[in-house]
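Customer ticket, subject: "Can you confirm the structure for SAM-dependent MTase RsmB/NOP-type domain-containing protein?"

Message body: Hello, I'm evaluating your service for our small team and ran a test protein. I'd like someone to confirm that this is what the system normally returns, since I don't have a reference to compare against.
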Amino acid sequence: MAYDNKGAGDSRGNRPSNNRGGNGHGNGGYHGKGGNSRGRGNGDKGGFRGSKGQGGYKKRDGERKFDRDDNRGGYKGGKPQGGYKGRGDRDDRGEGRKFDRDNRGPKRDFKRDDNRGGYKKHDGERKFDRDGDRGGYKGGRDFDRKPRGDRRDGDRDFKKGGYKKDFSRDERKFEQGERKFDRDGRKFDRDDRGSKRERSFDGDRRDDRRFDKRDGGKFEGRGDRRFDDRPKKRFDDDKRGFKPRRDDDRSDAQVDDDAPRSEYREHRRKGEGYRGTGGGYRKPKGQVHVTPARQAACAIGRVVRERNAYVAEVTPAVLAKFQGISPEDAAFATKIARGVTATVGTLDEFINRNMKTPNDIDEVVRDAMRVSAYELLFLDKPAYVVVDQGVELVCSVAPKAGGLANAVLRRMSESAKTFPFGNPNLSLQVLARSQAFPMWLAKRLMNEMTLPKATAFMHACNTDAPVFIAVNSVKGDFEQIEEAFDQAGSLLEPSEDVQGCYRVKESRSLRSADVRALFEAGELLVSDEGAQTVAQLAMPAEEPASFLEIGSGRGTKTILLQSAAHRAFGHCVPMTSVDDHEFKGKILGERCAAYGIDTVEPLTADARTLSQKLPEASFDAVLLDAPCSGVGTLRRHPEIRWRLKPEDITSMASINLDLLIEATKMVKPGGVITYATCTVFPEENEQVVERFLKTKFGEQFEIEEQVQTTLTTNGPDAHYAARLRRRA
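Agent reply: Thanks for trying us out. I re-ran your input and got the following:
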């Protein structure tokens, strides 16, 4: 192969040598130690990946390796001219090849120890100097093209074949004459930029930047631009719309218990939660967003269950632990707690229907679920609110039970749509379930009242009890009391049967400062009209010299009796009040003093053996406030409904008969005794009196008067009283 050496070849393949000779265009093979032999060779056919004959491979030791028998050019010759991957004639390429796997010789190491140039040559580092001539890596350049001068990095072709337009943009015409790529006409050529230390950025740096290193880190504000000046388009986005500023205090806004999404916007503004990529609200782990009212209701229910206590007794103490709870939340918590206690049996049945293993949940979790179940079945609350708050409430008492609560509450919300699971007019069981009454109690009420009356009674037991007040005639002035309620926005409806008894039409007026002052002064007390009816009946028309009260409790009827005496006789009467609990006697004494009554003597004794404490036939009038099932006061004492057992009624009736016999021993000849209960069952009322009259002691007495109030929606509770007079 002949060479016309017009330029010296670099041994490392960095500079091409313009070696011309032979026929046919082609590029030399791999760049070897002696340089790149580029030029015209005597190839017979187009070489590998060539269209025209390519130059041969420069051999060192005679035999060319990787040569083919068709005298084609070297391996990976120059760039193809006739299209991509032009291979020429490929027939019979297997003959004469020395590419047998068994005869390939020793394995060549990655650094190419065959003295060839190229990548990572052992005797020197390959250089990619952009300013010099490049070596022949993957063949030389195509010299048929027009020389372009010094090549820049961005000027190389994207493809191996085909003509590509020159990337150089120096010949383009611009409107302002000189080519410019930046603000102040700075040249774009990389070689003309100079070193980084010599460059200056003063020309293209904006003057309104907030932070400048050249000023020593001085921070400069952005002027008067505010958060609200951003484009309004962002605020119209549903997912990434306008959010209130975190320092925007809206704590005075009214909170709706039925809308948890609006209740806790303040928490979200204060950073207690964050928004994920989907735009939904995610609460931080371990934090719950449940209303204080529901938390308080759950706490009351737990205390009632654990202590077997009464709701009215524990509610004030539990609410006191929730500091800052509003009066509205306190009222709502009391309503839920009373409702849950009154319907607990039906709620548990409903919860169990929606669980596979209802016995596996903890009692505290069940307490929380009862609150949600009560809202679903007996309160007009949206299902999504109940489910959301129910899950939060369960998480507040048992964080690990949140998943269970979510699944169960969702099933409960769907199941509640078909409650009570039948027609109440066709099934007594469905009727009992719809009114949240035990089956045995509903059946007994129906048998003793008839079905329509029993249904009305059960419905009234599930309503809010009306508020009745009694005016203490010892200290109270009715005109002043009426004026205070008028200013509070409530009218007083007087009772038709009881003097000094009024129904408060607007119970919220009881929170008025003037009205509360009347209670604190002992001029008023809250008492049901039925209880006032019993007290009025028990005080005889003639003034008694001595009065005995059995079962005084905390003194409500004691005050009613003395008020009736003061109204009838102008002063209080001497009274002995008996109870079997000493602490109740202390409370009674304190209350009597607050109401201006100083003629009452508390006594702690067992009423079944009262004759051992007091002389017989020593009182002109006796009131036996007998213990009973309390069915007539279910709406005021909701815990009775599901604690009461069928045998308790018979047991109470037997005990009351013994108490009545013992109490009659205390009555003087010609005196009176009043037997009173707060139940609706004749077995505890009329039948006890009838049984007493048939006894040896009962032969001396006769019924003088009986009263029985009926529990209605806006009326009094169900009370029974019979006044008997002893023959002289």
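A couple of notes from the result: The CA atoms of residues 425 and 431 lie 7 Å apart. The first helix runs from residue 260 to 263. Feel free to reply with more questions.
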